[in-house]
Amino acid sequence: MQNTVVFSELSESKLVGTNLIHDMEDKLWIIHDYLKATLDLQKSYANLKGKDIEFAVGDQVFLKVSPWKKVLQFDRKGKLSPRFIKPYEIIERIGRVAYRLVLPPKLKKIHNIFHILMLRRYRSDPTYVITPCEVEIQPNLSYSEEAVKILARKVKELRNKRMSLVKDLWNRHGVEEATWETEESMKS
After folding, report:
1. pLDDT band at 100 (very low <50, low <70, confident <90, very high)
2. Domain Tf2-1-like SH3-like: where (predicted)?
3. Total structural domains in the chain?
4. Fewest Cβ atoms nearer than 10 Å: which of 20, 66, 150, 158?
């Protein structure tokens, strides 16, 4: 339970003059100490989560798209719009928390100096790059996918019947994209 400071207590004695002033000053110092303790506690919590972010000239960073810029510059808004766009190169550090970026001509209306909180580090990872493979698209805009091998089998019991399921590995996909299909649909 939290401690509370009461300025005037119910009692028969009445404080007047300097006694009243000294009593109020003491209670104000108690309040001040409580506020300082709370502030220090919140500061310690924030320091645990906080991290120092720093970029060097030549680093690649993503640029955060703020809501007003989404509407004015990037033509898309809503839940599925990107929060960060393209990696841009840092060309200059300005002060401790600002950076100048190389922006394309399409973004010429935007000032090219950004606060550090508007940037996110870009780490080049070749596994993120998706290589397109050639797919034969049929006239009805579909394509056929073939199962390469069966990875697992299981029988799922419903109320009054049993379904045989197989986990199939498809020819253009990895193991993590294998799907469970009914055995009857795979035979046909």
Report:
1. very high
2. 58-123
3. 2
4. 158
